[in-house]
């Protein structure tokens, strides 16, 4: 993309309504614009990152064997009356009437609707296990929407629902979700710690929240620092292997880690003192096992092996897709702006032409731009006729992890400059070598994993 053709409405001033870095930076970098309290339009740069985060979620759900569907945002109140939640949910639920006077609502979550799909189409235990999920807009009329996309009223969420014959199978589904979430967050450059939590209006006994440690987080957390040394990495997991999944869950749930809702001072005191940490965290996901809470009242049963109908065991599993953008920025920024992890960056690198209009600088920048694109990479070329300082400031603000700087002086010696946004370190090298380096950096991030290939050879949506 050429910056002169793009729509990147960056702000010079710090917006006064933004209290935390991620909100400030998302507004300043032209990623979002508030449409109403807690409701945002996603501008091109923000929308691109949202799609990248969403794509990682889809890929990791596919890896775990979960199946994508799409349910509507507007739902009839009738199903919610069946489960008893229409009255229970309270003022967070946005309610409305259609022209016939029928009660409708904007979905805050979708246990009822997915259970209705299940009971209509699944009749036998032989069709289990089944996990359906969607990534869809939700609405919760939060009393205090704040911190931008972090606590919105309209927000984008991945919600998944497992249907299993018995408790053991449902716990395996719970474990499978925990394992797949660990890898999902790591691919976004985040450490998200599973912590025992409280189930709130979703209900159920077993639940873990995933928290990204950050000063500005809304949850108070208590944990054993040993948990922060765990890394999922490139493990190959057989998601059908119950013991393998359970072992990974054990690894992550053995060190003490709880939110204030379930914190237990006596247990915490058993953690060696030098490893006890109290901090704050951003909740970027939550998994629940709630057994037959919805299947029983809604009659979601299957014929068991003995021919008798049994209510299915269920759980639901959420990821705060839009909130994740805020969490990633909270975890990765500096005074100058955002620092995107390679896994979610909106563009793979920036190209800064220091002297637009100079024949050699223009030609070299164009050559780098087209070589990167030919390799299937997605560069942002700042081809504006602007001062170098202004161009650097924009690049630093929008946080592309790598920048190639092209100027007449370097070109006289046959070099351009490759700069890391994270470390600020620069290296001079011939243009072809800079292109090669960018290609190597991103090779592991392509879906195929086999290196950088021309776009046409890659399947972009491996989850479909
Ligand atoms: N039905 C279950 C799981 S599918 C559910 O709704 N879980 S939840 O309430 O925990 O929400 C899932 C995730 O959505 C949360 O972990 C959080 O990351 C995100 N989320 C919840 N409320 C908001 C909000 N107001 N703004 C942005 N993200 C939110």
UniProtKB/TrEMBL annotation:
Gene behind this protein: proS
CDD domains from the UniProt entry: ProRS_anticodon_short, ProRS_core_prok
The keyword Methyltransferase is assigned to this record: no
Protein name: Proline--tRNA ligase
EC number(s) given by UniProt: 6.1.1.15
Signal peptide (from-to): none
Cell compartment(s), UniProt: Cytoplasm
Family of this protein: Belongs to the class-II aminoacyl-tRNA synthetase family. ProS type 2 subfamily.
Matches recorded under Pfam families: HGTP_anticodon (PF03129), tRNA-synt_2b (PF00587)
GO CC terms: cytosol
Known catalytic reactions: tRNA(Pro) + L-proline + ATP = L-prolyl-tRNA(Pro) + AMP + diphosphate
Coarse class of the protein's main subcellular location: cytoplasm
GO BP: any one term: prolyl-tRNA aminoacylation
Domain annotation Aminoacyl-transfer RNA synthetases class-II family profile: ranges: 33-341
Sample GO molecular function, one term: proline-tRNA ligase activity
Natural source organism: Sediminimonas qiaohouensis
PANTHER family: MITOCHONDRIAL RIBOSOME PROTEIN L39/PROLYL-TRNA LIGASE FAMILY MEMBER, PROLINE--TRNA LIGASE
First-level EC class: ligase
Keyword terms of this UniProt record: Aminoacyl-tRNA synthetase, ATP-binding, Cytoplasm, Ligase, Nucleotide-binding, Protein biosynthesis
Assembly and oligomerization: Homodimer.
Main function: Catalyzes the attachment of proline to tRNA(Pro) in a two-step reaction: proline is first activated by ATP to form Pro-AMP and then transferred to the acceptor end of tRNA(Pro).
């Amino acid at each position: 993309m050429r910056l002169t053709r793009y729509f990147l409405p960056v702000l010079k001033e710090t917006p006064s309504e933004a209290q935390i870095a991620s909100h400030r930076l998302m507004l300043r970098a032209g990623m979002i614009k508030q449409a109403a309290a807690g409701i945002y339009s996603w501008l091109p740069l923000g929308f691109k990152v949202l799609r990248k985060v969403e794509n990682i979620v889809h890929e990791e759900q596919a890896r775990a064997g979960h199946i994508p569907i799409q349910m509507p945002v507007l739902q009839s109140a009738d199903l919610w009356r069946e489960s008893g939640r229409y009255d229970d949910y309270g003022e967070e639920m946005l309610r409305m009437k259609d022209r016939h006077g029928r009660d409708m609502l904007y979905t805050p979550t979708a246990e009822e609707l997915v259970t209705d799909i299940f009971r209509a189409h699944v009749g036998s235990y032989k069709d289990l296990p089944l996990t359906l999920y969607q990534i869809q807009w939700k609405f919760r009329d939060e009393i205090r929407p704040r911190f931008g996309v972090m606590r919105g009223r309209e927000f984008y969420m991945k919600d998944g629902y497992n249907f299993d014959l018995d408790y053991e199978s449902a716990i395996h589904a719970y474990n499978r979700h925990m394992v797949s979430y660990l890898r999902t967050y790591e691919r976004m450059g985040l450490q998200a710690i599973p912590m025992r939590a409280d189930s709130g209006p979703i209900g159920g006994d077993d639940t873990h929240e995933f928290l990204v440690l950050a000063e500005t987080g809304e949850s108070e957390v208590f944990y054993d620092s040993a948990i922060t040394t765990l890394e999922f990495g490139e493990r190959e997991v057989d998601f059908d292997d119950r013991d393998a999944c359970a072992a990974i869950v054990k690894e992550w749930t053995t060190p003490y880690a709880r939110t204030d809702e379930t914190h237990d001072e006596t247990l915490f005191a058993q953690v060696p003192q030098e490893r006890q940490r109290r901090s704050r965290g951003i909740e970027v996901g939550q998994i629940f096992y709630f057994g037959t809470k919805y299947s029983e009242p809604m009659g979601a049963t299957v014929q068991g092996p003995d021919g008798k109908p049994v209510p299915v065991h269920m759980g639901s599993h959420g990821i705060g897709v839009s909130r994740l953008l805020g969490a990633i920025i909270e975890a990765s920024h500096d005074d100058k702006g955002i620092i995107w992890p390679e896994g979610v960056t909106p563009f793979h690198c920036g190209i800064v032409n220091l002297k637009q209009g100079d024949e050699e600088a223009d030609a070299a920048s164009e050559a780098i731009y087209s070589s990167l694109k030919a390799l299937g990479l997605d560069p942002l070329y700042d081809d504006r006729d602007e001062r170098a300082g202004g161009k650097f400031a924009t690049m630093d603000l929008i946080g592309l992890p790598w920048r190639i700087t092209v100027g007449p002086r370097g070109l006289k010696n046959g070099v351009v400059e490759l700069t890391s946004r994270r470390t600020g370190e620069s290296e001079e090298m011939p243009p072809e070598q800079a292109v090669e380096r960018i290609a190597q950096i991103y090779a592991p991030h392509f879906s195929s994993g086999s290196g950088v290939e021309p776009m046409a050879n890659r399947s972009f949506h491996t989850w479909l």
